[in-house]
Structure formats: structure tokens, C-alpha cells
Write a structure and sequence with these properties.
A: alpha/beta; Heat Shock Protein 90; B: Transcription Regulator spoIIAA; 5-stranded mixed sheet; 3-stranded antiparallel sheet; globular
Chain lengths: 328, 154
């Protein structure tokens, strides 16, 4: 069966981006200008990904309306995991998109290096398809500098967190990544590991086991509580993934944390340690792409992807995307 | 790990923070009791995680409630990131000076320039022209000026 992508946009730059992505995915690309004209195509084809320009709120609402009318917003026919929102604005300025029941993946339309960004996104779409064999190496480029290196580490005690974070920092510095960038990435890894060690573990009823435990508390990580970290580099992109064995992450909480702003109102420090909001915001603001993959009750894998740049300024303005895929 | 060098003078205490602010940091223990005002030199802080942010805010909010005066000098990027992300991160303390990151256009050397926030405000948050320490040639501000100085906007 022919694998296909669908783009709902009337913009030439969106088409350019997706031509690159579709070449990587080896899928055909259908392009339609509006949601109205897209809906019959969606009904008749099994698209592996549907891309929608939602720069204007009216475009988002039109898409939601057409999906609701034809299939229902919560239909299996069109799931958020396979929908990719495109916008001219950054995700932090797209609260309506985040709150949409159809939100699953998002990227800000790149204005530079469109071809390279399209190829990266193509690799992401391919990696998403290989859900059952999810692995960091899927995100990295086979054609990089001739090879890609992926290292896997199993953490068996919370004490190992700082050591693991420092190891990532040293790995980056050894790869000639600027110190500022290395520290920034190390901080994101710190947050991901803390989430996996303290926020992910739940009991059989889904009640968090350690979310109120002091993060300085030492605890062995046994069985499902073991945390797996992968670090990879293909010469252009760094990838870091952290996986836990619970799959307990809550979709609406994560999306709320992503869209939370601590700029407008004062941040209140709560007495307990619970709540990963600030940590998630830290990760999201670190400059790279962030991908959550959650299989309910089985595992959550959070992946960070960063393009290596010699300049911090270039690093911060790199093309990035956000994805939150949830599988019941 | 965070190390603290302390210097008590007649006017107050100066603490020089170096390293990472994370879950094992206890400011009450590291800084201890002091007389007069507190000046926190932040140049050596390499990163701060979310638990470190909470620890920081809890400590300085307590100081504020006790009526203590404190100020921050030579704030590096990790602190600037927090000042820009969290509106009340300074907890009422004055941010006296910040480190501006530059990279040389010729040799790619990365360095920082220490600037008084008052001076930046007087100059409408314009990034000054700075020369590379090594080659004496021009240097580029290595960040987005609007983002980096967001917390200084009125």
C-alpha cells in the first residue's frame, strides 16, 4: 500500500518543507489548500501524517469543525498523534492550538535552512511510525558524518542522576559544543531524569509514589523504576532520551506546563516538592525539539534533539518542534 | 555542587557562588548568619535546575520577609534565564550587574562583559560595542538582545 502524507496549507514554503520530509519518509505527498477540501481525502486514504497550517485561529477552528462534522473529534480515524500543526508563531504564542483536542505535534514554520529542517522532520515522522521499536537512533541521520553513535545507560539509583548529567555535559564539551549550550542541555537532562525518577512512578491505582519526596533523597531504582537514558550524536544533531517503565504522564498536565507562563504572574513556591511544571518549562525553553512518547501503563520516553552550532545565538534560533504522542 | 566563599565586611556580607544549584543545595547552611546587607556574586553559577530554583526563591523570599536587604551582582546566563522566565525570581533583591555573552567574529572566542543594569537602562537596553579580549577585533552579542534583557524592560 502506498504510504502518504497530507498537507493542508496554501503556502509554497510549507510545500517546500514537506517535499523534503516526504522524500525522507518515502511517502507520497498530497496537498490541499483548506480543511474543507481535505476531509474527503482523509476519509479515503490512510495518511501516516496530516499537516495543518494553523497560523490563524480561523484555520484551526475550520479544521476542528470539519473533523468533528465528518468523523468526530475523538474518532480513531484521525488521531492527534498523526496530526502536525504548523504555525508562523512559536508554540508559546499558540495556546489555542495546544488546547485543541486534535493537538499532537507542532512546529514553527522555519524561515531559514528549510530543506534541512524538512529532512529532520521527515526522520521524526519515520521514527514515530516505528513506535514499537522506538529508539533514539531513528531520530539521527544515517547520512550524518558517516556514522551515528548512541550510548545507552541504565540508572539503578537516584544518586546516579548527577553523575549521568555530568557525563552528558562532558560528552558535549568533548564534541566541541560551547560551554553555555552544554550547560543548558545538561540542565534539561537533569529535569528529564528527575521526572522519570520521582514523578513517573505510580502505584497500581495511578497514585504518584514519590512526587512529594525530596529530590535529594537517595533511593534504589528497581524493576519498573529503573530509568534508561540514551545519548546520541550524528555529527549534526544531538539526541538524548530518558525512559521510565510507567507510562503515567498526563497529557493535559504536560500541555498545561508547556503553555504555562511565569512571566505574567508571580511564581509561588509551594511547600511540597510535587509538580514538574517548572522543570518541563525549563526543558521546553532550552532551545531544541522535545518529544514525549507515552504508552499508558508501559513507558514514557522523553527525547530532546538539538542541532549542534558553534554559536549560542544560532543554537537558540534553530528549527525546533514539539510532540506529545499518547497511546492507550 | 555549589561552593560558597564568604567575606564579612562592616557594611555586610559578600558571598561568591560557584557551581550548580540543585536539590542538594542548602543556602541556610552554606551562607549562614550575616550582619548588614547581603551581596550575592553569581558569576560562577553554571546551571540551576527547577528544584534549585525553588530552593533559591524560598531562601531569598525568607530573607525579604525578615527585612534583609540583598542584591545580585555579575549574574550569568543561567540566572538571566530564570530572571526572564520567572517574574519574581529576584525576590525583591536588586540585580545590580549582569554578564553579557559575546563571541569574536574572527577567532570565535567566547567571553562575557560585566555591565551595570542601571547603565543598560540609561542606554535604552542597547548592547554596547565590545572588542574581543584576544584579537581586539569586533565581537557579536551571542544571544537575542530582546530576550536576554527582557527582565529589565519596564
Amino acid at each position: 500500500m502506498t504510504r502518504k502524507l497530507l498537507l493542508i496549507s496554501d503556502r509554497a514554503d510549507d510545500a517546500t518543507f514537506l517535499v523534503e520530509a516526504s522524500a525522507v519518509t518515502r511517502a507520497e505527498l498530497d496537498i490541499v489548500p483548506s480543511a474543507t477540501s481535505a476531509i474527503e481525502k482523509i476519509a479515503q486514504n490512510d495518511y501516516i501524517a496530516v499537516f495543518v497550517d494553523v497560523t490563524k485561529l480561523s484555520q484551526l477552528r475550520e479544521f476542528e469543525f470539519e473533523v468533528q462534522k465528518r468523523f468526530g473529534l475523538f474518532s480513531d480515524r484521525i488521531q492527534p498523534n498523526f496530526i502536525h500543526f504548523i504555525s508562523e508563531k512559536d508554540l508559546s504564542e499558540n495556546r489555542d492550538s495546544i488546547l485543541s483536542p486534535l493537538f499532537g505535534n507542532f512546529y514553527q514554520r522555519p524561515t531559514e535552512a528549510v530543506s534541512e529542517a524538512g529532512k529532520l522532520y521527515g526522520r521524526f515522522v519515520v521514527a514515530s511510525e516505528k513506535m514499537a521499536t522506538h529508539d533514539l537512533s531513528h531520530f539521527l541521520n544515517e547520512e550524518g558524518i558517516g556514522h551515528k553513535i548512541v550510548q545507552k545507560v541504565q540508572l539503578t539509583n537516584t544518586d546516579q542522576k548527577q553523575e549521568a548529567v555530568e557525563a552528558v555535559r562532558q560528552y558535549l564539551i568533548a564534541a566541541k559544543v560551547p560551554a553555555r549550550v552544554s550547560n543548558l542541555i545538561a540542565n534539561s537532562v537533569d529535569e528529564l531524569l528527575m521526572n522519570a525518577m520521582f514523578d513517573a512512578p505510580t502505584d497500581e491505582f495511578g497514585k504518584p509514589l514519590y512526587s512529594s519526596t525530596l529530590r535529594s533523597h537517595s533511593r534504589p531504582l528497581e524493576g519498573k523504576e529503573q530509568v534508561t537514558m540514551q545519548v546520541g550524536f550524528d555529527g549534526f544533531y544531538f539526541g538524548i532520551s530518558v525512559a521510565d517503565g510507567f507510562g503515567s504522564i498526563d497529557r493535559s498536565r504536560i500541555l498545561n506546563h508547556i503553555s504555562a507562563s511565569y512571566r505574567e504572574k508571580d511564581y509561588t513556591v509551594r511547600a511540597g516538592q510535587a509538580g514538574a511544571g517548572l522543570g518541563v518549562a525549563t526543558i521546553f525553553n532550552s532551545g531544541g525539539s522535545l518529544i514525549y512518547h507515552c504508552e499508558a501503563g508501559k513507558k514514557t520516553e522523553a527525547t530532546l534533539l538539538y542541532r549542534a552550532y558553534a554559536s549560542y545565538r544560532d543554537f537558540k534560533s534553530q528549527f525546533k518542534f514539539f510532540s506529545a504522542k499518547f497511546y492507550v | 555542587m555549589l561552593t560558597v566563599n564568604k567575606q564579612q565586611t562592616e557594611r555586610g556580607m559578600m558571598v561568591d557562588l560557584n557551581g550548580t544549584i540543585e536539590e542538594n543545595v542548602n543556602f541556610e547552611q552554606l551562607i549562614g548568619a550575616f550582619q548588614g546587607d547581603l551581596t550575592v556574586k553569581c558569576r560562577g553559577i553554571t546551571r540551576i535546575n527547577s528544584v534549585g530554583v525553588k530552593t533559591w526563591m524560598r531562601y531569598f523570599q525568607n530573607l525579604k520577609m525578615q527585612g534583609k536587604n540583598f542584591k545580585f551582582i555579575e549574574c550569568p546566563q543561567p540566572i538571566i534565564e530564570q530572571l526572564n522566565m520567572i517574574s519574581n525570581f529576584a525576590c525583591g533583591g536588586e540585580v545590580v550587574s549582569i554578564l553579557l555573552p559575546f563571541s569574536c567574529l574572527k577567532c570565535q572566542n567566547e567571553f562575557v562583559a560585566n555591565l551595570q543594569t542601571a547603565e543598560l537602562k540609561v542606554n535604552n537596553l542597547q548592547i554596547p560595542n565590545v572588542k574581543c579580549e584576544k584579537t581586539e577585533c569586533g565581537a557579536r552579542f551571542d544571544d537575542d538582545p530582546d530576550e536576554y534583557l527582557y527582565f529589565l524592560e519596564d
